[in-house]
Amino acid sequence: MTTPFKFVEWPCPAVGGDTRSEAALVFDRGRESRLLVIPPLFDEANKLRHTLVEVLRRLDASGIDGVLPDLPGCNESLAPLAEQTLENWRAAAAAATAHFGATGVLTVRSGALLRPSNVPGWDYAPQDGPKTLRSMIRARIIASREAGSEETRDAIEANGRAEGITLAGWHIGPALFAALEAAELATREDGVTVIEHETIGGRPAWLRAEPDFDADQADALAAIIAVAMRQPE
Questions:
Q1: Where are the domains of the chain?
Q2: Do the beta carbons of residue 192 and residue 120 sit within 8 Å?
Q3: What does residue 12 show for φ and ψ, rounded to 5 degrees?
Q4: 83 CB contacts (<8 Å, ≥6 apart)?
Q5: pTM score, two decimals?
Q6: Looking at residue 209, what is its pLDDT?
Q7: Percentage of the chain lying above the pLDDT 70 cut
Q8: What is the pLDDT of residues 130-180, one digit of tens each?
Q9: pLDDT score recorded for residue 233
Q10: What stretches of 22-173 show up as alpha helix (H) in DSSP?
Q11: Smallest Cα–Cα separation from 11: which of 66, 69, 90, 57?
Q12: C-beta separation of 216 from 203 below 8 A
């Protein structure tokens, strides 16, 4: 029996114009319908990874290949997170889409900020940069207060812009921090559909304290994508 998925390396653009190898989890049987998933940024990627792998597993059973690539500085990547920029992540997402021949792209939460152009697909519960930072800053303020110190949002933001800062265990460099502060969701192109979480149902995985998995949510998300990708052109 063949293994349903495997890990492969792919050539990813690096900061400075070089290329480095990054990992990707793939369900690849050489089929015409191929979905690339751009996960959320930072801690939400950890909370949703199990669900996204299970979505790809369900799509594989429906005759659709799937790819979940690592972004530089994230997951198994050895690239320093503090050196990453929003533009480099966008270039990485576009390169992965081209390299794996994706015919559709699913972005999740803040992953929508990295959506490559001219590829149809879905944005699941998209979130812009300011909201992504806001929740992480709030968590840092609460953690500092519990440790007996006080930090203000203004001070954290100023430090993030000047030197970079660690939020929820992620060391964000100053260029990435400033870019996220201004990063709005792009105007949605034809062929890209928003999937609101209410359509999926249940408590969102990103609001849970620890990484968790809901089979019903994976079923619902996979079903939406499978129906569309199996439609004749």
A1: 6-127+185-229, 129-184
A2: yes
A3: -115, 135
A4: 15, 73, 173
A5: 0.93
A6: 77
A7: 97
A8: 999 999 999 899 988 888 888 899 999 999 999 999 998 899 999 999 999
A9: 42
A10: 43-61, 86-99, 129-146, 153-163
A11: 69
A12: no
CATH architecture of 6-127+185-229: 3-Layer(aba) Sandwich (3.40)
Position 128 pLDDT exceeds 90: yes
Q: For residue 33, what are the contacts with CB-CB under 8 A and spacing of at least 6?
A: 63, 64, 65, 103, 104, 229, 230
Question: Which residues lie closer than 8 Å to 225 by C-beta, 6 or more apart?
Answer: 35, 55, 59, 64, 104, 106, 122
Residue 86's nearest CA partner among 106, 107, 115 is 115
What percent of the chain shows pLDDT beyond 90?
Answer: 78
- 229, 35 contact by CB (below 8 A): yes
Q: Which of 131, 36, 42 is nearest to 93 (CA)?
A: 36
Residue type, position 181, single letter: E
User: How many Å apart are CA 212 and CA 205, to the nearest integer?
Assistant: 7
Nearest 5°: CA angle at 100, between 30 and 222? Answer: 75
